[in-house]
Every structure is written in C-alpha cells, then in structure tokens.
Specification:
With 306 residues, the chain is mainly alpha-helical. The chain is 71% helix and 0% strand.
Length: 306
Amino acid sequence: MEALKIIISGLLNALFSMAIAPLIEGIMRKLTARIQSRQGPPVFQPYYDLMKLFIKEDIESGDYPLMQRAAAHLAFASALTVTAFLPLGFGTGFSKFGDVIVLIYLLTFCGVCALLAGLAAGSTYSLLGISREMMMMIPLEPILAVALIAGALNSKSFEIATVLNGSVYNSTAFPVSAIIMLIIMLLSIQAFTQRVPFDISEAETEIMDGPLVEYSGPKLALFRYSRMIRLVIYSAIFVHLFVPWGNNLIFPLGFLVFWAKVLLFTVIITVIAATHARYRIDQAIKYFAIMLGVSFIALLLAAIGY
C-alpha cells in the first residue's frame, strides 16, 4: 500500500508539472510584454501553441529521423522523471528513493538531448546552435551539481528529500558556503532556464532558433514542453535548496507558500530577461568560468563545515 502511495505521488507531481508549466510560461510572456509596453499574448497562449504543434504533421527533414524522434521523446521523458522525484508542495514523489546524483544526471541528459537533436538535423544553423549549447553546458552544469553536493555534505545524505530541504544551511558554523552558492545560483539561473541574457544557443535573430531550427510539429512541441517543465524544475530546486521556510507546512498552506515562492522566482527571471541584452558566447563562457571557480571554493568551505 505504501509503495502504491509513492507511485501515485510521483505521477501526480509529473501530471501537475505538465499542467502548470505552460501557465507559468504564459504569465512570464504577459509580464514581459507589460514591461516592454506591449499588450502581449493571452496567459493561456502556451497551451494553444502546444496543441497546435501536436496536431500538425510530423515532417521528417533531418539527416537522422530516428535520432530526432528519440531525442525529442527522451528530453520530455527525462524532464517529467525529474518532476516525479521532486517535492512540489503536496507530495514528496520518489524523493526518498533517489539521490541527487540521479537528479544531476537527468537534468544534464535534458541538455544532451538538445545536442543530439541538433546533430541529427544536420543543418548548418543547428550545428552552430549545438556548438554554442555545448560551450555553455561545460561550465554551467557543474554549478548546479556543486550546489546539490554542498547540500549533501552539510546534511550528510545524498537523499533528494533530505538535500532539498534547506540543507545548504546545515553547516556546523556560519553557512558561508550557502550564501556564496545562493549568490552564484541567482547569477546563473537565467542560463539554466535558457532566458535572456544567456539564451545564446537559441538566439533567434542570429542563428534562427539554434539546435531546433529544423524541427516542427510534435517533436518541436515536446522540446518546448520540456523547456517549460525545466523552468518549474529549476525554480523548485532553488526554492527547496535556498528558501525552504514554510514548504513543510500542513496542506494546503505548504502548497500555497511553495508555489508563491516559485511564482515570485519566475517573476524575477522574467524581469531580468525583459530588461537585459543578450551576452555574446565568449562573454558568457568567461562569466560562468568565474562562477564555477567560486562555486568550487564554496564546495571546499562546505566540506570543512562552513
């Protein structure tokens, strides 16, 4: 019976993420338009966009159609799997049965699927897009890994439910490492969610939508859907890791507090994206090389109890 409850909890997390992700995307689009003095699309426009793409003909235009189909479905599946492991305000999902290493692998695999998709398309523009994506992933992905591992060191556990409960503050002394990682994650979250100024691989005005330039129909819908879900994922991880207070209140208070913080976090992402210009790839790499170096210092401090 207990196993059935856990399975249901994980499935509910995944289904709720699928339902809420396009709404958050719609709110972000509307807010962006208001900041830029435009009316903007309806809040529910992302739902309409996804439905339109899903019912379109699935045209195979790349060099390796099988890899294209596999990359699209695996990107979406890996994002949904991550949501099943996350506590999302009303259920812990599979978080007590997974560790943060699995979480890191799955999130990295989402990015790898985009690389495979661009490679399978065989377009000059998509190859340029994946080269930028790869250059961004090399210094960026380890930053999240360092934040999660620092929490694991402080909590002396790699269990997701334990780490994603403000574990970065569980140091034996003043949590210097937690404050450093909080600043680094705030400075890096635009890149994790692929928003301006770090949406370099998807710079539509420069390289025509990067790795996904050859995609349309259901496969494009899956990639866009997975991107929306990943925004929810990174926001949830940030809230659980660095702003955990109130998340464990009794339902529905804990649920409302958690999603209010997630919504506030996405508003911050939107405001930054709407008011900043895109970085060049060389600027972004230098920026994240510095962030990565500082994050390793924070990891060292966490290892010695700070």
